[in-house]
Every structure is written in C-alpha cells, then in structure tokens.
Amino acid sequence: MFIREELIPSAEEILARVPLPEELKKIKQERDKLASEVIRGETDKILLIVGPCSAHESKPVLDYVERLGKLNDRVKDKIVIVPRIYTNKPRTKGVGYKGMFTQPDPRKREDILKGILTIRRLHIDAIGASGLSSADEMLYPENYAYMEDLLTYIAIGARSSENQMHRLVASGISLPVGIKNPMSGSVPVLINSIYAAQSGGQVFKYQNWQVRTTGNELAHAVLRGAVDGYGNDIPNFHYETVMKVVEGYSKTGLKNPAIIIDTNHSNSGKQYKQQIRIVEEVLNNRLYDKDFKKYVKGFMIESFIEEGCQKEDVVYGKSITDPCLGWEDTQRLILDIADKL
Asked: Closest by alpha carbon to 104, among 150, 172, 54?
C-alpha cells in the first residue's frame, strides 16, 4: 500500500526554480569536454572521481570541493578532477540513510522536495566554489532529470548495473557514464550493460514522455571488486583481472573502451587506507603494459576532510557511511599520481 505524502513538481519546474547560472554553464561545458576527452582517448590525462562516500551536509562538502579546486590548479595538466558529490546512497539491506535526495538532513525525517532543491543548490554552489563540475550516482534513473544540467560524470552502481531502466536511461545521456561490475564480478554482464548503454534506438517511458535514445558512446566500465557467495571481497584491480575486461572489450567492438578503477569497496575490503596502495599498483601496471595504460583511464577514490567514518554527524567533514581517506592523504596521493603520469 502506498501512502501519498507530497506531490513532487516535475523536473522542468524544478530546473526553472533553481537554474544553473549562465556563467557556470560555461564552466560545466568545459569540464564536460575534458572528461569526455579522457574516455575517448583523445588525451593522456586521467580522470579522477574523488570525494566522500556520500554527501550528507552541504557546508563540509563545499569546503572539501573548494580544496579540490585549488589542488586542481597544480595537477590540471595531467589529471581531470571530478568531485564526487553522491546524494543518493544505496543500502545493501534496503534500510538506513539513503542520501540527501531523500533526507537532506540525516537527523530529520525524509523530505524529497527539500532534498531535490538542496542538492541542486549544492551542485551549483560547488561549481562556483571550485570551478569543477561534479559526479553523482544514478541510483534512481527517473531522478536523473532533476540533475541532468549539473553533472559531468554519472555512476551506475554494482547493484544497479543489471537493471534494465538504468541501462536505458544511460543510453540517452551524452556524458561519461561509469557502469560498475555487478556484485558477482561477472565480466560478461558488465560488457552487456555497457553494450546496452551504447545502443541507440531504445524506446521507453521517461518523465511522462515516450522517448527514443541515440546511444551513449561514453558508457564505460568501472571495476569495484566483487563479493562471493559467502560475503568475501574479491578485488579486481590486479593486472590479470583488468586484462580479462580488456579481453571482453576486444570481442565486442564497443566504442571508446575505457576502465576506471574504484579503489574502495570490495577492491579495498573497505579498508580505506588501502586505496593508496591500490592506486600505486595500478599506476605501475600502466607503466608496465601499454595496453593496460590504453584502457585504464582513471580512478574513483573515496575521500573527505577527516579520515574514517562515524555513525552520526558529529565530526565536521567525516563520512557517515563508508570510511574515507582524509584530506592530507588525499592531497598527497593526488600530487603523487600527477608526478607519476
């Protein structure tokens, strides 16, 4: 039984109520171009999607993103930084904090309309504070329309990558969409998801319209590790497993084959400090093998102002979901990446 609580305005109404200013549209267009060039292989730069596991409060996120903007000035010749501002949080068991979209204040009840308005302002303010446009997760495909003018990178999570609607909506987006391998780690399923997202001519209902998509040639793989039948984490950032994905790509004729390495989740076993070691290993493999380098085009890193995590929002700039690297380690790691490219 559904209990109706509040009518949510259409995406068109929300975008008109909280528009992206013209001067920031120009910044976003340039950032879109830079990120897309990495996925197309038109540059030797790498893509770095970095930020907290989930954004739960605007002020520390803007503080963090502003720091990234300043750091970007030092590494922009080698790295395209996309702040990770994830406002939808998947839950393994379906319960718990689901992100700012649903619950703009984690200490109060759900308020989706306020959440939509809050995160639009957050993404807009982040561009203004840092000169960088951001990434968010497309957890609920229908909600993408409320953010479509603000994002430079869209992620599809491991629990969603086999979902038909995620694949269909991804095929109508013209920006980089990173599709994570499913929880099982299946390479054929991952490749099929990318194939579906790159395929045009898909017809379905979206935002009260019958739509037809053109296909998204920028859809690509994100390796986040897998989980076996007993709940054990299985990393897939090592050379041998990455090359299995390269092999899968080579059999399909997919456009712009690219792989992003998610350094946390099952790759690190959520041991957040291991992200540093994982990045180092992947960078070394890029030096070792030109094919590995050709396909592996960046990283996802979970990072915030304070390292680790907390159950409740007590410490400023500390994750209330998965543990993250702190700012000092993050800054050192990003500069190290730039030095080794």
From this structure: 54
Q: Are 230 and 261 in contact (CB under 8 A)?
A: no
H or E element, residue 338: helix 327-340
d(CA 93, CA 89): 12
What ranges do the domains of the chain cover? 11-39+47-340
Q: Angle, to 10 degrees, between the axis of helix 112-130 and the axis of helix 58-75? A: 30
Token code pair at residue 253: 């004729």
- 117 within 8 A of 105, measured Cβ to Cβ: no
* Cβ atoms of 326 and 304 closer than 8 Å: yes
CA of 178: how far to CAs of 11, 95, 118, 289, 319, in Å? 23, 25, 25, 23, 23
Q: What is the pLDDT of residues 279-317, one digit of tens each?
A: 999 999 999 999 999 999 999 999 999 999 999 899 999
Whether 237 contacts 278, CB under 8 Å: yes
User: Which secondary-structure segment (H or E) carries 208?
Assistant: none
Does residue 93 have a pLDDT over 80?
no
Rounded Cα–Cα distance for residues 197 and 169 (Å)? 8
| Predicted confidence (pLDDT) per residue in 14-62, tens digit | 999 999 999 999 999 999 999 999 999 999 999 999 999 999 999 999 9
Q: How far is CA 166 from CA 11, 95, 160, 199, 250, in A?
A: 18, 21, 7, 13, 24
* 11-39+47-340 is a CATH 3.40.50.2300 domain: no
Separation between Cα atoms, residue 102 and residue 113, nearest integer Å: 8
Question: Would you say 163 and 197 are in contact if contact means Cβ atoms under 8 Å apart?
Answer: no
pLDDT at 237: 98
pLDDT tens for each residue of 228-280: 999 999 999 999 999 999 999 999 989 999 999 999 999 999 999 999 999 99
Question: What does pLDDT average to over the chain?
Answer: 96
